[in-house]
Design goal:
Layout: E1 5-10, E2 15-19, H1 34-44, H2 49-62, H3 66-77, H4 82-95, H5 99-114, H6 118-127, H7 129-135, H8 144-152
Antiparallel strand pairs: 1-2
C-alpha cells in the first residue's frame, strides 16, 4: 500500500482508497516531484553516466545528428569528475582492443590535458600511470596516439 493513500470504504470485494496528502506542486516545501527526484539521482549518483552519454554522443554523431551528439557530449562534460571517468573508460576500451570506441574519448581528454598546467598534467600522469602503460601496444591508434604523444614530448608534460 502507498503510505499517502488510505482506505475510504470497504465493500467486501472492492476497496476505495483516497489520497491523504495534498498533491505536490512546484515550489511546495513538502517534497519534490518524481521526475525531479529521478533527475537528481541520475545527475549525481549513478555510475556510468559519463560513459553512457559519451557513447550516445558518438552514436548520434555517426548518424549525422550533430545537435543530439553535441547535447549528449555536453551532458557528459557536466558530470563530476568527467575527465578522470572518461579517460578510465577510454583507456579500458583501448586496452581491450576496442580502439574505435575509445578514440573520441581519448582525443577529448588529450585536448583537455593540453590546456592544463604542467602540474595538472603531471598529477594526471601519476594517477593514471597503469592505464597509460596499458595503452602502449595501441600507440598508433587514433586517440591513443594523442594521449601518449602528449606525455612523450619531453618524457613528461610540457
Amino acid at each position: 500500500m502507498i503510505p499517502e493513500y488510505g482506505l475510504e470504504k470497504d465493500f467486501g470485494g472492492v476497496r476505495v482508497y483516497s489520497r491523504k496528502r495534498k498533491p505536490y506542486r512546484p515550489g511546495d516545501a513538502e517534497g519534490q516531484r518524481w521526475f525531479e527526484l529521478i533527475d537528481h539521482a541520475i545527475s549525481s549518483r549513478l555510475f556510468g553516466m559519463v560513459q553512457g552519454h559519451w557513447v550516445m554522443g558518438d552514436l548520434h554523431a555517426a548518424q549525422g545528428k550533430g545537435a543530439l551528439a553535441a547535447w549528449m557530449y555536453d551532458r557528459a562534460r557536466a558530470k563530476r569528475n568527467f575527465e578522470a571517468r572518461l579517460f578510465q573508460w577510454g583507456a579500458g576500451e583501448a586496452a581491450a582492443g576496442r580502439t574505435k570506441a575509445s578514440a573520441s574519448a581519448l582525443v577529448e581528454i588529450a585536448g583537455w590535458l593540453r590546456q592544463q598546467s604542467p602540474r595538472v598534467r603531471e598529477a594526471f600522469r601519476t594517477a593514471f600511470a597503469e592505464e597509460l602503460k596499458g595503452l602502449e601496444p595501441y600507440r598508433t591508434e587514433p586517440g591513443v596516439a594523442d594521449i601518449l604523444d602528449l606525455f612523450r614530448r619531453t618524457d613528461g608534460p610540457s
